[in-house]
Every structure is written in structure tokens, then in C-alpha cells.
Amino acid sequence: MSAALRRSFTSLSVPNYRRYFAGQIVSLSGNWMQIVAEMWLILALTGSGLAVGVTSALQFLPMLLFGAWGGLLADRFPKRSLLTVTQTLMTLPALALWGLTATGVVAPWMVFALVFARGAVNSVDNPTRQSFAIEMVGSERVVNAVSLNSVLIHSARILGPAGAGLLIATRGVAPCFLINAVSFVAMIVALRAMKPDELRPSPPPPRGAGAVRAGLRYVLATPTLAIPLGMMAVVGTLGYNFQVILPLLARFSFDGGAGTYTALAIAMGAGSVVGALVAGARGRVGPRLLIASAFGFGAVALIAAGAPSLPLELVALIPLGAASVTFAAGINSSLQLAADPAMRGRVMALYSIVFLGSAPIGGPIAGWLGGAIDPRAGLVLAGAAGLVAALGARVAFARASAPAPRHDCEAVRPRRGRSAEGAGDGRRACDHGPAPVSGSA
Known about the structure:
The protein is mainly α. The chain contains 17 helices and two strands.
């Protein structure tokens, strides 16, 4: 095994993280199986691209509404215990959707309601999981752990859709929901098997009113947090809408079915895994990486928008997946490293809001563009978002790193051979206004 590949998996040397990793791969695969089934079910029930966008929006709307308070809970309570509760609650919407679909009484409004309920639990679960990584592995391995989390997510994006496509084609959508409900057991077992004394919990914040506003003020006053979050707000809202774009591409651009959708999801997931492994081997993150990955995401999204055939689209989605995960993992890692430990849950909640909570805005936009113009229009919008984020971040980072303007005055030294009249010893010349008068108030 090469040194770079060993660096990609260094966090797995931590026993608690190894348990977490094993539980997550099962749970997230089930979750992606359910997401694919939900989107295909709502498309079958309504035949509407906008309805697919609304489904995606409802999944993430609770993050936009409640995510900041979810982050506060993550700061105030032990994250391992909180995750045990949220993972248990996540089983309920999946079981309900399985029962409704299996009995044939499911209607679009029921899907919408249960998707929203799952999103409400996720508004606590996601910021807790995001800020839990550094407690398991420490700051020296957090970039690697975040990248391996991305490997988990995008490996699940391969396994989940592949399993969902097979089940939908042979058994229908109902088994996907039941399997997801059962998959949460693996994560609950992994959490309970952890050794609490090997975790590195963050100190809880002082209780009192205004804790959520304090987190927001802290981020706005810290450029190393505000700029990456701004980048993610732009790309997350307008670019990360693939749950809406891919089924529309499959159905309307390539005249395919569930198998075509599954192939598109697998291609993008495969690229994402490669991108995550490369990011994990790097071990560090900085402004240059964030800007480059945003630019790369935008450029490849525009290439994917122009792919004229399904085979070329599959090829284009591989580097798009790699660029998307490199950008998201870079933002995530930079925030965890820059955040004060007592604020980390709230900072990562804001990350979750702009990454996931922006979907209620971007999802319907992508769905509307796909129905009114062409599904490829969503990829064009994603490309433009990446390029704008890269350009804006380059300007913002340059301004943040520029030295503050000097307000003291340089002593003027008379030129040799000229009179020093008007520039005698002890006098200063200022280019920003007159010098203060001695003794003035």
C-alpha cells in the first residue's frame, strides 16, 4: 500500500471512528436507497419535475428552519447520546412510508409530509454528526476524517441507488423504505459500542438567551469562517441539486427509466469516492484549494451540461462528482479547524444550513428549469454558481489577508541639499488628513 493511500485511511486507526465508519456505511446506504425511492415514487405519482423539486425541498426545509437550533443542541449535549436518539427517530418515517406504499394507499401529500418529518430529525442529526468527527479523531486527523466521511456518503450513493434500482425494477419501491428503517440499527449499535473515555468532547457553551445569535455573530466576524460559508451558500443553493437534476436527465434527456437514473447516480458517486480519497491523502486545506475546487466544479458542470449522449454524460459525471466532494470536504474541514470548540456545533449547523438547507430554494429552481427549459439547464446553473463562488472567494480572501491601512504617519526626512523648512525634525507628513493638534480634546 502506497504512503498516499495509507494517509487516506489514517483515521481508521482510531477505534471509535472505525466503529462509526462501519455503522455509517450501512445506515447511509439505506438512506440513499430511500432517497432514490422517494424521488422515483413522486415522479411516478405525479409525472412532474416540479414535484420532484418540491420533494427535495421538503427534505431539507427543516434544516433551513431549525438547523441553527440543532447546532445549539449539538453544542449543549453529548453528541454520542444525541445521535443515538436521532438515529432511532429516523426509523419512524421510513416505516410509515413502507406501510403506506406496500398497502397501495400512498398519495403525494403523504410522501411530502413524511419527507418533511425525516428532514426535521435530520436538522439535529446532521450538525451533530458534522461536529462529532473532530471529537473522535482530534484536530490532527480531522481533514482525513471529513474526507473519509465523504467517502462514506458517496460510497453509499453508489450502493444505495444500485440496490434501489434493482429493487424498484423487481419488487417496487416499498422494500427500499423497509431496508432503510432496518439500516439504522447498525448505526445505533456502533454508537453504543464506542468508548466514551476515548472521545474528546468540546466544552458546552454557557446557557442563556441569544446563544444562536451569538454563533451567527461569531461567524460573521471571522473571515476564515464567513468566506467558506458564503462559498457554500452559493454552490449549495444553485449547484448541489443533483437529486432533482439526475432523475430529470434520466427521464427526459435520455428517455430512460430507473436503470438510467441509477447509472447516472453511480457514475457521480464513483467520482465522488475518488475525490474524497484524494482529499483525505492531502491532510490540509487552505483558501487556494477552496477556490480551485469551486472553479473546477463549475467548469466540469458546464461540460456535463453539454454532453450529447448518455455514455458521455456518464463520463462527465465522474469528474463532476470528484470536484463536488473536494469542494464540500474542503469547506467542512476548514470550518472545523477554524471554529472555536465551544462554537463548533453552531458553526457546523450553519454549514448544514447552507449545504442542505439551501435545497428548498435550489431544488424547486432546478426542477422548474428542468421542466420549463431542459434538465441540462440545472447543470448550467450549477456551473455558473461554482465559477461565481471561486471568483468571489478569491477577492474576499485577498481583502481579508491584506494588511490594515496604516493610520500613523511616516517621518519625513529632508532631502540632502534642500531646506528642511516645513519638514523639520519630529514633524510627520500624513496622506490621510491633518495630524492631531497637541492638547486637543
